[in-house]
């Protein structure tokens, strides 16, 4: 584990392990511990795939808590809490996401099939077999980066051109798959579409998925779903 400063009011705890479900749970356990302790000078906690940034109010620490060096205090605090972290038993139930693969809904899939040298049925079996987990949230509100994809589907390239990508697009990027939560414009490889709304600002729980959640994909057809106002990808 490494602990280092990120500017004058943030500290980063980096766990030097391969991205995994256990690593994500380590970071969530540390975050939950800090939230429960409710330190008044911690202003934000931002976990990523392999580390976590803890922002703090250095002025408040010096002025109201008589802490001479906020960074050294935070570093010592992070080192001291590691042994206190206890993982909670969590349900292994996965959120099932229905996906329409290929065609208008996954315009990059045919090119990927040629790259992989496999047919559609084989691809769908490989993509839907794993139980993924949300290893990071980012890019847009509620956007899940899903780890667990079979190595056979890893890619080292993006789409040839940037295009409109609607919310609900299932994409592949490198070693991960993901689901767009808002309409966007980019060069992600779009393999399918789901009408499941992962981000809804009108609800109290405005994201359907959270860090550490398990996710599975279920192949389906457009006739079986309410497409939710689907807008196809376009240049």
From TrEMBL:
Entry keywords, A to Z: ATP-binding, Hydrolase, Nucleotide-binding
Gene3D superfamilies: 3.30.1360.40, Cyclophilin-like
Coiled coil: none
GO molecular function: 5-oxoprolinase (ATP-hydrolyzing) activity
EC number: 3.5.2.9
InterPro entries in alphabetical order: CT_C_D, Cyclophilin-like_dom_sf, PxpB
Domain (Carboxyltransferase): residue spans on this chain: 1-209
PANTHER family on file: 5-OXOPROLINASE SUBUNIT B
Protein name (record): 5-oxoprolinase subunit PxpB
Annotated organism of origin: Staphylococcus casei
Source taxonomy: Bacteria, Bacillati, Bacillota, Bacilli, Bacillales
Gene: pxpB
């Amino acid at each position: 584990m490494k602990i280092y400063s990120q500017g004058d009011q943030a500290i980063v705890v980096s766990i030097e392990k391969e991205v995994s479900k256990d690593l994500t749970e380590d970071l969530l356990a540390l975050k939950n511990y800090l939230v429960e302790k409710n330190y008044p000078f911690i202003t934000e906690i931002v976990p990523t795939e392999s580390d976590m940034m803890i922002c703090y109010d250095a002025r408040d620490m010096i002025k109201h808590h008589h802490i001479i060096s906020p960074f050294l205090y935070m570093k010592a605090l992070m080192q001291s809490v590691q042994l206190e972290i206890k993982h909670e038993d969590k349900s292994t139930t996965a959120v099932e996401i229905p996906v329409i693969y290929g065609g208008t809904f996954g315009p990059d899939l045919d090119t990927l099939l040629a790259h992989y040298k496999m047919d559609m049925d084989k691809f769908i079996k490989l993509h839907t077999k794993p139980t993924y987990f949300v290893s990071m949230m980012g890019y847009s509100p509620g956007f899940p980066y899903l780890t667990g994809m079979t190595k056979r589907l890893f890619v080292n390239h993006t789409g040839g051109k940037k295009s409109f990508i609607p919310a609900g697009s299932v994409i592949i990027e490198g070693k991960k798959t993901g689901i767009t939560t808002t309409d966007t414009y980019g060069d992600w490889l779009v393999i399918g579409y789901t009408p499941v709304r992962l981000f809804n600002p009108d609800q109290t729980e405005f994201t359907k998925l959270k860090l550490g959640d398990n996710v599975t994909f279920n192949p389906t057809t457009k006739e079986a779903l309410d497409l939710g106002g689907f807008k196809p990808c376009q240049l």
